[in-house]
Amino acid sequence: MIKEESITGRQLFAIVVMVQLGTEVLSLPHVEADVAGQDTWIAVLLSGLFAQLGILLIWWLGSRYPDRNLYTYISTIVGKPIGLCMNAVFGLYYAFSGFLLTTNYADVLKRWMFVLSPWWILLLMLLIVCGYAATSTLRSLALISQTMIIVPIVGFLLITLSGTYGFDAKNLLPVLSGGWNPVMKGAYAAFSSYVGYDLLLYAYPYVRSRSNKGLLLWMSIANAIAIVFYVAVCLVCSTMFSLRQLTYIPEPIVFILKNYQLEIIQSLDILFLIFYACVVLSTIYVYFFLSSKAFMHLRKNGWGKQSVWVWAIVCACFAGGFFMTKRSNIIQVAALQDQASVYLIVVLPVILLVLSTLQRTMRNGV
Amino acid sequence: MNRDVSVDAMEQIISMHFSEQSDFRARRMSLGEKECIVCYLDTLIDPMHVQEYILKPLLNRPLDAIRQVVSILDYSETDQLEEAAQAILYGKAVLYREGESHFYLLGADLKKERSINIPSNERVLRGANEAFIENIDTNLNLMRKLINSTDFIVKTFMIGRLSKTKVAVMYIRSLAKPNIIEELERRLNSMDIDYVEMPGFIDEWIRESKYSLFPQMLITERPDRARAYLMEGKVVVTAAGSPDVIIVPVSFWSFFQSPEDYQNSWLLGTIFRLLRMICFVITIGLPAFYVSVSSFNPQLLPINFVNTLQSSLKFVAFPPVIEALSMMLLLEILREATVRLASPVGQTIGVVGGIVIGTVVVQSNLVSNTMVIVAALTGLASFIIPSYEMSNAVRQLCYPAILVSSIIGLFGLACFFMMLCIHLCRMSSMGLPYFVPPFTLSESKDTLIRAPIWKLDKRPQGTAPNNRTRLRNPRGWNR
């Protein structure tokens, strides 16, 4: 197996929180307004609980192979040819997720701040930072995430404080007016914002934790924090805006912050958007990292160098960026990616778990 | 070595090694029946020593064994000619008596050293006022006097093909992590080099990130500071001929610690330390912030301030990025000039820097008022950082920051800080992470803040993993 430095449970927590929080904080209330209406927050909460189930699933799968990562044990479960194919699929999936996030955030930045600046410079900057980070080890990534965690903390305070003035709780009523159906649909739409806990598929063997359960605990805390963050954002947005307004504003949080002025800083929204880059970038570099690792695991003793893979992915993303200049394109492709993540992160682990259980019982039976 | 080499033959053999040396002396004399020869370099030995403690006793008691006659503490014997020749180079007098199979190496070297001065580069108001000097033995003596324990280990190495410089590694056996000591010794032993310039050569030879701007060893001239780090399980390396010692492994935070933090009350220490961190950010970011605010995001600041800023920029011919780059360059020129200039002329710099640049540049509309303030603040902030190496490195970082923010404003600055953070997180020092964010309270105890002494009950996990309890029963009298 390819060597990797171990991380602590606390570091795992930081890295997972940072991966789970992404551009969705900005866009989730808008997306959900079309689907779940005023019950957005219930849908987001539910979705977080599903994610918790997903974590349990992956943890269970990981604890069967405590000293190997997904990319190595997948071949022992489904056989070498399919396993290698799956590795390549994972590599493509993560590279694509990172690409999508980058273009998405570059698009947000362009619309809010850099209307006149050439758009590819934004993309290039984001990609260079991510590429540089993704070439490091898992432990370095954890250290970076631990440092960056200050940004979402400040962001959370800003968001909740800005929601205390001028809200209207009546916007949340009536609860469950359309029954559970729109809520469930909303939960599906919100699931992609919780994606990121799948890091555990790779990181499981490298976490130095006192026990197996401690690891699950850290993952659950990270997920809980993501739930709190998203639910707070949705509550703030749905109470500040009416449903109709929300369907028109793509990034309501920025809109709310624009409203506030301090004595020394006139526009909080700009600062927020800029420093939110740290949160988004911490998601993207983990994806690029996972992608490069997946490609490296195509051969037993490592295929190529990590840095080469990462920079290849970065170049591909930059080139691909020129085909994704329209917002409508990004939204279309994002729907595709949502489906892919459900298949790869929920359905596939279930299949693997079932198969590995079958294999064990067969072996024990014989 | 043969027994029956005559003194004449021996004189020839030794002289062959030193035939071209004008300061080589070989003195022959007769002790009883036997001929004797003393060889030395007279620029290296103390003549008084040789006369009083070697020659005089020998002439008085010619027949006794030499070991019992000479009153020299640094006494050894060898039968290797090479070793004897080397000993002469170290300032020993080599004695050979006819009919014997070995040389006597008698230490009589002349010690020329300056006295111990007050530290000139790392001043503190409170605390010890001793600094290391160029003589390694004196330095070791200073350290030994500060730590009176058998656990305090000093290991010496010879490094340098030609210079054969003595390099000493100091650590505390019960604290230091054995892996780190082993690794350091391995790296030091791998040094195959003509001579050792301390600390530069050793630093560059054993550091991990070759291309990083950030210092990866702490360089200090203060024995008390060296002791403080030894007590955390770190290793101190010193070499002959240098008044600086280096400390490994270090973390990013070490460069923001000053010995004075521990002399003041802990609250003051914490405040000063936070001040240094703020200055770190100011040094890197302030000029870049100025550039991005004045050319990209003026809407970030309140309207009144923007008006003031714009009015000062109104008649300035150059874009803000040129302003910022030129002022920062000017600052660097002033700094370099102050270091190089002889001290009586140093006053001139104040006049030139203060009056010409401060006033005239603004009056002639070359640079805006605000930029002068920014440049001055940046320069001052960079000198707050206690480590000279770190302060220099940080000041250079403002140039890329200015360039990036001139391309894409504050967003570029944010990306630059992110890059910086990634770079720091990727670095390591002797296998330990260089930058560990103060994520938990225990990690921030002696990094971001200076916790009270009675709270610093554990040594750092990285460097002293096996023996972590630093103090027992903190403030036990108060229970």
What does this structure look like?
The complex is a heterodimer of chains A (366) and B (479). Chain A has 366 residues and is mainly alpha-helical. Chain A has helices at residues 9-20, 24-35, 40-64, 70-78, 80-112, 119-134, 138-148, 150-162, 180-194, 199-203, 212-240, 243-248, 252-258, 268-296, 306-321, 327-365; strands at 7-8, 207-208. Chain A has a single domain, classed as Up-down Bundle (Amino acid/polyamine transporter I), CATH 1.20.1740.10. Chain A has 16 helices and two strands. Chain A has a two-stranded parallel ribbon. In chain A, helix 1 (9-20) packs across helix 7 (138-148). Chain A is globular and about 70 Å long. The model of chain A has no long low-confidence stretch (mean pLDDT 87). Chain B is of the alpha+beta class and 479 residues long. Chain B is built from 16 helices and twelve strands. A five-stranded antiparallel sheet of chain B has the order 1-2-4-5-3, with helices on both faces. Chain B has a five-stranded antiparallel sheet with strand order 6-7-9-10-8, sandwiched between helices. At the A-B interface, helix 6, helix 7 and helix 14 of A face helix 15 of B.
Catalogue the unreliable spans of chain A: none
What is the subunit arrangement here? heterodimer
CATH superfamily of chain A: Amino acid/polyamine transporter I
Classify the beta-strand content of chain A into a percent band. under 5%
- What order do the SSEs of chain B take from the amino end to the carboxyl end, as H and E? HEEHHEHEEHEEHHEHEEHHHHHHHEEH
N-to-C terminal Cα separation of chain A, in Å?
Answer: 29 Å
Number of strands of chain A: 2
Gyration radius of chain B, rounded: 30 Å
Q: Which parts of chain B are unreliable, with pLDDT below 50 for 5 consecutive residues or more?
A: none
**Radius of gyration of CA atoms of chain A, rounded to a whole number:** 21 Å
Quote the average pLDDT of chain B. 87
Globally, the shape of chain B reads elongated
Output the CATH topology of chain A.
Amino acid/polyamine transporter I
Helix count of chain A, per DSSP?
A: 16
Characterize the largest beta sheet of chain B: strand count, sense, and whether it forms a barrel: 5 strands, antiparallel
Could you tell me the number of beta strands of chain B?
Answer: 12
The CATH architecture term of chain A is Up-down Bundle
Query: Widest sheet of chain B: strand order?
Result: 1-2-4-5-3
Helix content of chain B: 40-55%
